[in-house]
Amino acid sequence: MKAAISSASSALNSTTTSSLSMNRWLIVLGTIIVQMGLGTIYTWSLFNQPLSDRFGWDVSSVAITFSITSFALAFATLFAGRLQERWGLRRLIRVAGVVLGLGLILSSQVSSLTLLYLLAGFVVGFADGTAYITSLSNLIKWFPERKGLISGISVGAFGTGSLLFKYVNSALISAVGPAEAFMYWGMIVLVLVVAGSFLIREAVVREQSPVNAKEGAVSEPAEVHQQYTVKEMLRTKEAYMLFGIFFTACMSGLYLIGIVKDIGVQLAGLNVATAANAVAMVAIFNTAGRIILGALSDKVGRMKVIAGALLVTAVAVMTLSLVPLNFGIFFACVAVIAFCFGGNITVFPAIVADYFGLKNQSKNYGVIYQGFGFGALAGSFISALLGGFHLTFIVIAVLCAGSLLMALIITPPGTSLRARDSHNKQMQFNPSSRAS
Question: Per its record, what are the GO molecular function terms (predicted)?
Answer without folding.
Answer: transmembrane transporter activity
